[in-house]
Design goal:
single chain; 2 domains; 3-stranded mixed β-sheet
Length: 225
C-alpha cells in the first residue's frame, strides 16, 4: 500500500499511481509501433518488445510489483489490511521461489539467466521489508478525516489490538466499545484514542491496557487542572 508522510492516499488515487507505470510502457510501445509501421527501424522491434514485457511483468499479481500492489489494495477493500497482506505476500513468496528455481534451471542454457535468480532474491527482500509498514498504513488511514457516523465495534477487553487493527479496511471509520468476558461495559475508545494508546502501550497491547492508559491520562489532566 502506498503511503506518504504528508497524508493518506485515497484508494482510487493509489490505483492510478500503480497503473501509471505499466500504462506508460504500453503507451510507449503503441507509439513506437506506429513509428515502426511508417519508418522501418529494425532496432525499434527490441524497444517495443521490451516495453510490452516490462508492462506485463509489472502487472503480474505478485508483491512488490505494481500488479501485486493493485491486488493488495483490492483485497484490502474486502478482507482488511492484515489479511490482504498475508495472502498477497504468500503468493509473492511462491512466485519468488519459482522464479529462483527457474533461473537455476535455465543457467545450463545461458549464464545470463542468473539474473532471474537475482531478481527473485530482490523481490523476496522487498516483500519482507514492506511487511513492517502495515501499521503505518493503518495509522495513516485512521488519522485521515472521514465523513459519516463511525461503525460501533464491540471488543473484549483481553483482545489484542493487533487482531482488530489488521481487519481495518481503507476509509473505514470505527468506534470501539470495550466489554468484559461476561459482557459488562468497560468503556469506549475512538480511533484517535486507540491510536494514541498504541503509540504508548504497543500494538500488541490489549484493549484493557489501552483503556487503562486512557483513564490514567484523563485523571492526570484533571489533577493538573
Amino acid at each position: 500500500m502506498l503511503h506518504l508522510r504528508d497524508g493518506f492516499i485515497q484508494p482510487l488515487d493509489e490505483l492510478l499511481i500503480h497503473l501509471s507505470g505499466p500504462l506508460f510502457n504500453i503507451f510507449t510501445a503503441f507509439m513506437l509501433y506506429g513509428i515502426y509501421l511508417n519508418y522501418y527501424y529494425p532496432w525499434l522491434e527490441s524497444v517495443i518488445l521490451a516495453n510490452v514485457i516490462l508492462a506485463l511483468f509489472n502487472l503480474m499479481p505478485f508483491y512488490p510489483l505494481d500488479g501485486g500492489k493493485i491486488t493488495d489494495l483490492y483485497l484490502a477493500m474486502f478482507l482488511g489490511y492484515g489479511r490482504s497482506q498475508k495472502i498477497s505476500r504468500l503468493f509473492s513468496l511462491v512466485f519468488s521461489v519459482f522464479l529462483f528455481l527457474l533461473g537455476l534451471y535455465l543457467i545450463q542454457y545461458s549464464l545470463m539467466n542468473v539474473f532471474l535468480c537475482a531478481l527473485a532474491v530482490n523481490l523476496y527482500i522487498a516483500r519482507k521489508q514492506d511487511n513492517s509498514f502495515i501499521f503505518y498504513k493503518i495509522t495513516r488511514n485512521i488519522e485521515e478525516e472521514k465523513d459519516g457516523s463511525p461503525q460501533i465495534m464491540v471488543c473484549k477487553e483481553d483482545t489484542k489490538v493487533i487482531k482488530v487493527i489488521e481487519r481495518y479496511k481503507p476509509m473505514q471509520n470505527r468506534m470501539f466499545t470495550i466489554v468484559s468476558d461476561k459482557g459488562k461495559y468497560r468503556g469506549q475508545l475512538t480511533e484517535n484514542e486507540l491510536l494514541e494508546g498504541i503509540y504508548h502501550c504497543g500494538i500488541h497491547a490489549s484493549f484493557k491496557k489501552i483503556l487503562y492508559y486512557k483513564k490514567n491520562k484523563k485523571r492526570e489532566m484533571e489533577h493538573y487542572l
